[in-house]
Automatic annotation (TrEMBL):
One of its GO terms (biological process) is polysaccharide biosynthetic process. Gene3D superfamilies: Aspartate Aminotransferase, domain 1 (3.90.1150.10), Type I PLP-dependent aspartate aminotransferase-like (Major domain) (3.40.640.10). Its cofactor is pyridoxal 5'-phosphate. It comes from Rudaeicoccus suwonensis. Belongs to the DegT/DnrJ/EryC1 family. The active site is at 181 (proton acceptor). InterPro entries: DegT/StrS_aminotransferase, PyrdxlP-dep_Trfase, PyrdxlP-dep_Trfase_major, PyrdxlP-dep_Trfase_small. The keyword Calcium does not apply. Keywords: Pyridoxal phosphate. It comes from the Bacteria. The modification N6-(pyridoxal phosphate)lysine is found at residue 181. It holds the Pfam family DegT_DnrJ_EryC1. This is dTDP-4-amino-4,6-dideoxygalactose transaminase.
């Protein structure tokens, strides 16, 4: 079975992990410090990133760091993995959905503006499939409401918009390093920002809420080196050195990964062009995506049949995503099918074709031939 996604691991990755295993640090240590500086550099940020144990942990940490709490509203997209919404709910926030743009599947600034209230705390956009959000427009809407723009960039590290790297487009940005993502730490994630205040709060939250920083202590005594203070609630989301070492080594090849993902996208585009039943991924001017998915849409109502046809021919495909507001947990809160027609139509038509750097041209051509033969049948 040809998978729809696959990690890209080579012998240098294995050697990097083995070096840590032979050393003195397995948990958070010097490899994490180095990886955090390297992630910040890719994101165009001066302050080191705050690394965590997963993309979900990154979202939870970012919401906590921006002060999201009970009574606040977080506006987000229904076309995402549900953690974009549920992590804000863990902080007590109310989720407000807004529809997406028909071309990119990204959060629509016009829909967000209509959803803003005086309780809006965060606008959380998702770089669907790797295409960056319209950050300038979303920032304008969010900031006019006194809110923060969060970019869920789980799909898009190393992408950019108008020359500005993903990580510097929003007030706070989260990354995921799951195996199928654009680089991996096996499991992991990160928070980046140009705000030292947000990063400080994020670092405290992911470190169980305690600090060894003397400048932050309430105690004025000359305490011993063992001393620490707990100033806020937090969780243990600390990334270990053994995983950070893998991430650092992956970063040395991220430009290569990006180039190949674009080549895969271009080959799919060329092979599937000019078929009326298909809509290919949008690519807006000024955007330089880091393609995580190839989200093909079939508009003749046969998505399930195409999905089954490809699976029957040993091609792994996926659907990204089931609209979040369709989930029972949100139905209980009053959200209903039909409220976000663009996101729902996108989801009903979408099928993610195989996409990873080691995908061969022959593999791509086989997928193209299977799609074309199905559509013409």
């Amino acid at each position: 079975m040809l998978p729809y996604g696959r990690q890209s691991i080579d012998e240098s990755d294995i050697a990097a992990v083995a070096a840590v295993l032979r050393g003195d640090w397995l948990t958070t240590g010097p490899a994490v410090d180095a990886f955090e500086r390297e992630i910040a550099a890719v994101a165009g940020c001066e302050e080191p990133a705050v690394t965590v144990t997963s993309g979900t942990a990154a979202l939870h940490t970012a919401y906590a760091a921006t002060g999201v709490g009970p009574g606040d509203e977080v506006i987000t997209t229904p076309l995402t993995f549900f953690a974009t919404a549920t992590c804000a709910m863990w902080q007590g926030a109310t989720i407000v959905f807004a529809d997406v743009c028909e071309d990119t599947g990204n959060l629509d600034p016009v829909a967000v503006e209509a959803a803003v209230t005086d309780r809006t705390k965060v606008v959380a956009g998702v770089d669907y499939a790797g295409h960056p959000i319209d950050a300038p427009a979303l920032s304008k809407v969010a900031h006019a409401a006194g809110a923060v723009l969060l970019e869920d960039a789980a799909h898009s590290i190393a992408g950019s918009l108008d020359g500005v790297p993903v990580g510097s487009l929003a007030d706070v940005t989260t990354f995921s390093f799951f195996p199928t993502k654009n680089l991996t730490t096996a499991e992991g994630g990160a928070v980046v920002s140009h705000s030292a205040e947000i990063l400080g709060a994020a670092r405290d939250f992911k470190s169980i809420g305690y600090t060894r920083d003397r400048a932050k202590w309430c105690s004025q005594e000359d305490e011993g080196v063992w001393y620490y203070e707990v100033h806020s609630l937090g969780l243990n989301y600390r990334l270990p050195d053994v995983l950070a070492a893998l991430g650092s080594n992956q970063l040395t090849r991220i430009a290569k990964f990006k180039k190949r993902r674009q080549e895969v996208t271009d080959r799919y585009n060329q092979g599937l062009a000019d078929i009326p039943e298909l809509v290919l991924p949008a690519h807006r001017p000024g955007a330089d995506p880091m393609w995580h998915l190839y989200p093909l849409r079939i508009v003749d109502g046969r998505r399930r049949e195409l999905f089954d046809h490809l699976r029957a021919n040993a091609v792994g495909v996926q659907v990204n995503y089931i609209p979040v507001h369709h989930q029972p947990i949100f139905a209980e809160l009053g959200w209903r099918k039909g409220q976000f027609p663009i996101a729902e139509a996108y989801s009903a038509q979408e099928i993610s074709l195989p996409m990873f750097p080691s995908l061969t041209d022959d593999d791509i051509d086989r997928v193209i031939d299977l799609v074309r033969s199905f559509v013409r049948a």
